[in-house]
Amino acid sequence: MSRIRSSDITDRRIYLNRRSFMQGLVAAAGGVALVADTAFAGQPAPHGRKLTTVRSALSTTEKPNSWEDITTYNNFYEFGTGKSDPAANAPKYHPPQPWTVSVEGECAKPGRMNLEDILKGETLEDRIYRHRCVEGWSMIIPWVGFPLANLVKKAQPTSKAKFVEFTTVLDPKQMPGQRDDVLQWPYVEGLRMDEAVHPLTILSVGVYGEVLPNQNGAPLRLVVPWKYGFKGGKSIVRIRFVERQPRTSWMINWPEAYGFYSNVNPMVPHPRHRQDMEARLPSFFRSTRTQMFNGYADQVASLYKGMDLRKNY
Q: Is 0.90 surpassed by the pTM of this model?
């Protein structure tokens, strides 16, 4: 399996016409009420379908990046390794309707669930989170989602369930990146159970108060704000409760660079990138000092008490 070329992960941003964002928005979120919400000051003109949300107390007070930053500069290798590839290719993707997630493994209530059923009874929250990538860039993103812990509770994992494994959609006909061997497909990620049920961990269905665009992982993606962004599996189709630590896609592809935990740790450099400083988009200058656990140390450091975070990277 091939290694990623440095040129594949550092290309320049290409801003696209806003009309492209209208394509491919997910009908699966139809179970959520739609309203004209103006929750965020400076939010751009509407691009998609509005979501009814409440403001989360867990949000950062930092100013969010623009819609253009968030939706045109992405890592989503299913649509290509270049930062602008997802925005160019993902709007052509037509997700299956209804979107179905299979809940499996060590749980009392396995089964297949439509996204509408998953969202039924959920209160969607605005979660403004820092997003940190291993290439040295970061954003502030206003996600819309709900705690993963709520879905875990519905599945009723058994005492054997120590980890949660997430598998994303496999559709090489519509996802050009899956025709290459840059990663082992489908994409797999995982969390320890206590990480999965932490209040900061969410399943996202939107951004900026609107339905999640395809290039950002529609219709359902994982967001774990104290970890590097690649931990957030996009377009999730399977959630499995397992006893042993899952073999995640990046651990298989490049274990020297990408460990299971993937906590933001400025003391552990990536083989190709420094991690102690970062560039806050839209700037490309590394002028921001990287914070331990991406600035969420007060909330999550206790999860790793006694662990060697250089070894367990």
A: no
